Amino acid sequence: MGNHGAPPSPSGPPFVTQLLWLVPFGLIVIILISMLTPGISPTTRAVPYSEIKALIREGRVSEATLQATAIIVILGTKSGGDVERVRAITPQQPDPTLLPLLEEMGVAITAQAPSEQSILLYFLPWILIMGLYFWLIRRTSGGVSDLPGGIGDFLSGRSSKPTKPVRKITFADVAGQDEAKNEVSELVEFLRDPERFQKVGATVPHGVLLMGPPGTGKTLLARALAGEADVPFFSTSGSEFIEVFVGVGAGRVRKMFEEARKQAPSIIFIDELDSIGRTRGTGLGGGNDEREQTLNQILAELDGFAAREAVVVLAATNRPDVLDPALLRPGRFDRHVTLSLPDKVARRAILDVHVKGLPLRRDVDLDEVAAGTPGFSGADLKNLLNEAAITAARRSASDITSADLDEARDKVMMGTVRTLAIQPEEKHRLAVHEAGHTAAAFYNPGADPLYKVTIIPRGRSLGSTHTLPENDRHTLPEGYLRVQLTTYLAGRVAEKLLLGSVSSGADDDIRRATAVARSMVARWGMDPGIGPVDLRESEDHPFLGQQIAQPRSFADETAARVDLAVMGLLHHAEEQATQLIENHLAQVEQLVAKLETEETLDAEAIKACLDPDNKVMPFVKKRKKV
Ligand code: ATP
Q1: Is the minimum distance from the CB of 165 to ligand 1 under 6 angstroms?
Q2: What per-residue confidence (pLDDT) applies to 624?
C-alpha cells in the first residue's frame, strides 16, 4: 500500500552487504554446536555406559579418560594402527566398581578436571550472543552511526534519510481532493516559513491523520505537501516498524524523529498507521510487545515536540476505527483529513492528470470514461489507463482507443477473462440467468440504465449484467433499492420460469439481495411494521466496505421480526421479477438466444431484443460505449 508510483528509497543498503551480516551469526551457531558437544571428535563413537564396561571386561581397552560426566576409552593400542575412541556418559551416582575394574584390567587411567579454559569455552557462545544482541539494540536504537550497510540498516531495511522523489510532486498532481488539499495547504506556509508563525506564538498542528479508502491519494497528498513546501520528506510504513527484536521499532522511530528534527522544517509520513497504532492490549502473542513499544515511542515523540518545532507528522490509514484513542488526542494526530472516492467531476480531473503523455485516439471521450467508472479510486483510474495502454500495445497499435478503455474497465472491475470449458447446457443456463437480470433492469422504471450483459467468465463471475448510474448516487431511495432487489433475484427467477429449476448460480445474488434488504429493515426504517429503529448487528466499515460485527442490543423477538421483514421484502421482489419476466417471456427468450451466440451484448443489442418496437423507451437511456 501507499507506495504506488513512489520511487524506491535511495538509502537502503545493497542486499549483498546486508547478507554479510549473517556471517557472524553463522559462526556463532557453529561454535555453539561444537562447544556444546565437548570431547567428541569426528572419530569418537558414543555408546551406552554398559557397553564401555563390557569392552573393559573383554580386555579391549588400553586407555581410559575419566571426565566429570563422561568416560572416553581407547580401544586397542596407540601403536597398533587404527585407534578407536569410544565415549559414554557416566551414571549420575558414581559407579564404585569402575575404578577397580580398570585397575584389574591394567588400563591406563587419566582423570580430567573441567579446566578454566573449557568453562570459558562453554560460556563463550552465550557471551557472544548476548553481546551481539545488545550491540544490535544500541545500533538500531538510534544516534550511533548511520553508515549504510550497517547491521542497523539490515534490520531496519532503510536508514533514516529523507526520500527524494524523481520528480517534484505538487498539489497539481493531486486531482479532485480539493477539501483535503485545502486542509493541508495551510501547513505549506508554516513549513516554508516557520519563523513567521513562531514570532507571533502561533501553534500549528504537528500531527495530521489522512483517512480514506485505499488508493484515494493519501500518500500522494503527503508527498505533494513536501513538494509544495520544499522540505525533506521522511517516509515510512507502520508495518516496517514491526520487527522480531522487541525495541527495534521503537528505536527506529526515535532515530527517524531525531533526524527529522535535525533537518527541520521537515515532514514525517507514516503510511498504514493502523498496523502499529491499533488499540493497545488487544493483540495476542509476543509480537504485540514490539508493536506497543513502537506505538508508545510514537506517542512520546509527538508529545515531545516543542510547540513551535517545524516538523509535521502525517499518517495515513484506512482503518481509523481500530486506532488507539491515545493517538487521536489533542497534541497528537488531532487534525483529521478525509479523502473520499472521487465523484464524476473528480474522476475526470484525475484522468486528465494521468493521460498526460498517453497517445489517446480522438474518439476517446474522457467524460464518458469518468461517467462509466463510479466507485473507482484515483489508483484504479491510473491502473485503468495503464491497462488500456497495455491492451493497445498488445494489438501493436500506436494509440489507445475507446475499445481498449472498455476492455481495461472490465478487467479492472471484474478481473481477466477466464478460459473455462463450459458445456452447452450450462452455457444456456448462464444465458437464461443473465437475461433474467437484464430483463428486470430493462423493464423496471427506476433501474439504472443498462450498459452491457455478458456470459464470458471473468474473475470470479461466470457472467454479468452491467448497469451504470446516470450520476453518482449519494443516497439510495427506497424505490431504487426495491428495484435492485428485483434485479438481483431476477436471474434465479428466469432459471425457474424458463428451465423449470434453479441452480447455485444465484448464490451471490441472494447474498447481496439479503444484505440490501437487511439494511432497508434494520438501518433505514423502510419496513412500516418495524419503523425507524436502528437494529443493525454489524456496522459498515467507513472506507473498506466490510461489515464489522456489533453486539446485539435488542430482544430476540425483535430480531425475529427483522428476519421476517427481510424475508417479506425478498419474496415481494421475487414476485415482481416473476411478473416482469412472465409478461415479456418471448422477448426474454430472444435475448437468451442472442446472448448464447454473441456472448456479450451492449445496450443497443439488448434493446433490439427486449424492445424491438420501441415501446419501452423512456426507461432506457442510450449510452455511448465507454
Ligand atoms: P493506500 O491506502 O492503498 O496506501 P493511498 O490513499 O495512499 O492508498 P496513493 O498511494 O496516494 O493512495 O495513490 C496511488 C496512486 O494513485 C498515486 O500514486 C496516484 O498516481 C494515483 N492517485 C490516487 N489519487 C489520486 C488523485 N486524487 N489524483 C491523481 N492521482 C491519484
Answers
A1: no
A2: 42
Bridge-based pairing state of the strands 464-467 and 450-454: antiparallel
Spatial separation of the C-alpha atoms in residues 510 and 516, rounded to whole Å: 10
Class assignment of domain 42-111?
alpha beta
- The residue from 228, 290, 434, 574 that is catalytic is 434
Residue 434 is a catalytic residue: yes
Strand partners, 66: 71, 111
- Is the entire prediction scored with pTM above 0.70? no
Letter for the amino acid at 179? E
The full length of the chain comes to 626
Q: How far is it between the farthest Cα atoms of the chain?
A: 120
Position 284 confidence tier, pLDDT thresholds 50, 70, 90? very low
Of the candidates 350, 368, 344, the residue with the CA atom closest to the CA atom of residue 473 = 344
Given this chain, do its domains 42-111 and 158-338 carry the same CATH topology? no
Q: What is the per-residue pLDDT for 294?
A: 81
Higher pLDDT, 145 or 525: 525
Alpha-carbon distance 538 to 153, whole Å?
Answer: 43
The verdict on the CB of residue 378 being under 6 Å from ligand 1 is yes
**What's the topology of domain 158-338?**
Rossmann fold (3.40.50)
- Rounded Cα gap, residues 285 and 507, in angstroms: 38
Class of 424-610 in CATH? mainly alpha
